[in-house]
UniProtKB/TrEMBL annotation:
<comment type="similarity">
    <text>Belongs to the peptidase C56 family.</text>
</comment>
<keyword id="KW-0378">Hydrolase</keyword>
<dbReference type="InterPro" id="IPR002818">
    <property type="entry name" value="DJ-1/PfpI"/>
</dbReference>
<keyword id="KW-0645">Protease</keyword>
<dbReference type="Pfam" id="PF01965">
    <property type="entry name" value="DJ-1_PfpI"/>
</dbReference>
<dbReference type="GO" id="GO:0008233">
    <property type="term" value="F:peptidase activity"/>
</dbReference>
<dbReference type="InterPro" id="IPR006286">
    <property type="entry name" value="C56_PfpI-like"/>
</dbReference>
<dbReference type="InterPro" id="IPR029062">
    <property type="entry name" value="Class_I_gatase-like"/>
</dbReference>
<protein>
    <submittedName>
        <fullName>Protease I</fullName>
    </submittedName>
</protein>
<dbReference type="GO" id="GO:0006508">
    <property type="term" value="P:proteolysis"/>
</dbReference>
<feature type="domain" description="DJ-1/PfpI">
    <location>
        <begin position="6"/>
        <end position="169"/>
    </location>
</feature>
Amino acid sequence: MKLAGKKVLSFVHHEFEDLELWYPILRLREEGATVHLAGEEAHTKYIGKYGVPAESDFAYGDITPEQYDAILVPGGWAPDKIRRFPEVLNIVQQMDEKKKPIGQICHAGWVLISADILQGRKVTSTPGIKDDMTNAGAEWFDEPVVVDGNLVSSRRPPDLPEYMREFIKVMEIC
């Protein structure tokens, strides 16, 4: 297992994109990583856009970023809620400062925009937030996955296989 012993944090909130949360979590677990979910409240059930539930292990404020090797931000409408928490923005900033892998897909770019870590970075996202990404200082590409150092970004669910192949590669070297 490529990622045995690695710990990954994924954010969750209501109306996450079901596949963009669960596919990465399952792939990372298949590779031996431990994945925890952090939500607004600990031990709370959050419902995805298509009705798939996910229960948080921790609240955003319970997280110590140093305990994690990587972070994932799912898409859907959840990122617009997730980015409103200063604890989340602090976690993303600390992970980026330490050059730990950060994965974002679809609308998840909103969280990175609010964390102010995109200046001069190469990214992709759903085309719907392309202007938001470029206004935050990023160089946007219409590609299935873009890797810029520790930042791995992807557009939408059909790109999940390419996204996770690259995210796992980045995790292996970090």
